Amino acid sequence: MPISNAKRLTIAAIASSIAISSLAQNTPTPAEPPRDLTVLILGDSLGLCGFSKRLDQKFRADPRVKSVFTYCTCGTNPLSWLKEKPYAHVQTHCGYWSVESRPDSHAIKELRDTYGTPSGHRPTSHAVPKLDDLLATIQPDILVMQTGSNLFGLFSGREKVKPDRDGPMLRKYLVPFVKKAITPPSKLRKIYWVAPPTSGRVSGEIQEFVFEQTQKDIGSVTDVIDSRQLIAISRRSHGRTCGHSPNQSRNSRPWPRRVQRPRRRR
Fold first, then answer.
1. Taking a C-beta distance cutoff of 8 angstroms, is the pair 98, 70 a contact?
2. Which of 31, 155, 259, 264 shows a CA-CA span of 20 to 30 A to 7?
3. Do 12 and 263 meet the contact criterion of CB atoms below 8 Å apart?
């Protein structure tokens, strides 16, 4: 179903124009804003399908951004990025992409290892970067965390929510990540949490619960973005990375454009 222009304009902001504007609201705007912001983007397999690449490009094009570091790892959840067990040494086996700014230069260092790039290629294993290390070495001002729908696997085989059980279960995957993200030596000034798009994998009741629980658990310290208004991922495309599913890649292309559109001021 096509997305109307009205819906595109009402989405919550996470792209550079919105993220940076939110940082600049309380500071005077000089004639030429300094290029001093560092951005960290983390994503999963849906990020590999074009979302993170376009978001990365958007930030790099902004004159106020000094550096951008983007990492996408297939099959991960928020805990995969932490050093705590059982994820301390977790690896991704179905796709990896990173693009890093080089010091004092506009050049980038890029590594892409995904299905079908080049044709017939199968990715090797890669260690999932750890948030602790990234915060300490990169010292980002802005963090964008894109979560696809791997957490829907927690609800496998059922259509109904059991709030008393599912709330604490989901919280265990969300809160530790955000707690780590805001604990020194973190210097983050803004966190954008891109929640899952509409999925054919689980019922609407479960999807609504996951978004509402995410908002409840971490909405006070992050800007939670509801991607359900923007894109749908079919049951058939689910569990396949871009190289396995051209459908998923095509469906994901409009997502970053819609996320990047400014929301209407209230």
1. yes
2. 155
3. yes
Instruction: Determine the Cα–Cα distance for residues 30 and 28; give it in Å rounded to an integer.
Output: 6
Domain presence at residue 73: yes
* Residue 31 within a domain: no
The C-alpha atoms of residue 175 and residue 197 are separated, in whole angstroms, by 20
162 DSSP assignment: -
pLDDT digits (tens, 9 = 90+) for 39-84: 999 999 888 888 888 899 999 999 999 999 999 999 999 999 999 9
Cα separations in angstroms, 5 against 41, 67, 79, 237, 266? 26, 31, 35, 26, 17
Q: Comparing C-alpha atoms, which of 168, 177, 164, 163 is closest to residue 221? A: 177
Q: Residue type at 230? A: L
CA dihedral 117, 122, 127, 128 (to 10 degrees): 60
- How many structural domains comprise the chain? 1
Rounded to the nearest 5°, which phi and psi values hold at 18? -85, -45
Highest mean pLDDT among 158-167, 195-204, 230-239, 249-258 belongs to 158-167
In the 8-state DSSP scheme, what is residue 109? E
- At residue 97, φ and ψ (nearest 5 deg) are -150, 135
Range of the domain at 215: 5-18+38-260
> pLDDT tens digit string along 212-266?
999 999 999 999 999 887 766 655 544 444 544 434 444 445 545 545 454 433 3
Is residue 92 within 8 A of residue 75, CB to CB? The reply is yes
> Residue 51 has what DSSP assignment?
I
Q: 100 and 109 in contact (C-beta within 8 Å)?
A: yes
β-strand pairing of 37-43 with 223-225:
unpaired
The residue with tokens 């996951």 is: 210
* CATH code assigned at 83: 3.40.50
Adjacent-strand bridge partners of 110: 99
